[in-house]
Amino acid sequence: MPVSLNQIKIPIEKELEIFEKKFREAMKSRVPLLDRITYYIIQRKGKQMRPMFVLLSARLHGDITDKSYAAASLVELLHTATLVHDDVVDDSYMRRGFFSINALWKNKIAVLVGDYLLSRGLLLSLENDYFDLLKIFSAAVKEMSEGELLQIEKARRLDIKEEIYFEIIRQKTASLIASACASGSASVISEAAGIEQMRLFGEKIGMAFQIKDDLFDYGEADIGKPRGIDIKERKMTLPLIYALNKASSSEKRWVINVFKNHNKDQKKVKEVIQYVKQSGGMEYSISKMNYYRDEAFGILHSIPQNPARDSLEQLVRFTIEREN
Q: What's the CATH number for 5-321?
């Protein structure tokens, strides 16, 4: 039975409460409309896994500091900004079972709110002279933007090879979790090698996390998004890439035709999902996900054991055993 998030939080329970207060402070504005929207964002917060990665990475190396809280707020501000912008780009009106910002306040306001959250993160670094954190997170924003654009470019031509897919998810998803772990350790230690070690640890988890997300599209669980949504949005995921690599030329033509011209047809999308499953795409993707998990464990186990290390290990397991 997978461990619960509440159990994982034990070494940083009090610190997470302090973080939440500091995060609310960081979101505050003198503009009443903005204050209403940021209040709405805080009320529908997710699992806060990224701030947990920051604080556990800090605790792994010593005592949590004001800089650790700033790093946790930074990663959450950045993550929230990207979600708000993503919903605009994807014309999505629901997020975690709630209306998205653009659904309630329209696109223009949603884009401006995302910009505000990004600027708050930048100022949080500059006001405290945390230039190393600014460098870590600025690199992550660059990577995430490049990853999204690379995915859009390749989806148009449907020519994503496996190595391109891994590059996309490294930039798009793994870079933010990598920056969470790097910034957490950078808030406590100054050795470049130790910070880079934690950045790599986070990158491996991010890769596994995204592959798990891809697998949801082919699973049975109710995860808040309809099955086949990635196909409908013409996103090339690892199970599909594997299936296409194994396909005959006629099968490939059929899948690409559905992908390009019938991606809103529920019956045809279900047929593609079934084809991917029969091709072994799920098993292959699970093996790749476990490979990145084991790489992350290899890095983590090179650090002396303590309660934070145990919780980080459990958090890695949680990311790939979660049902939503």
A: 1.10.600.10
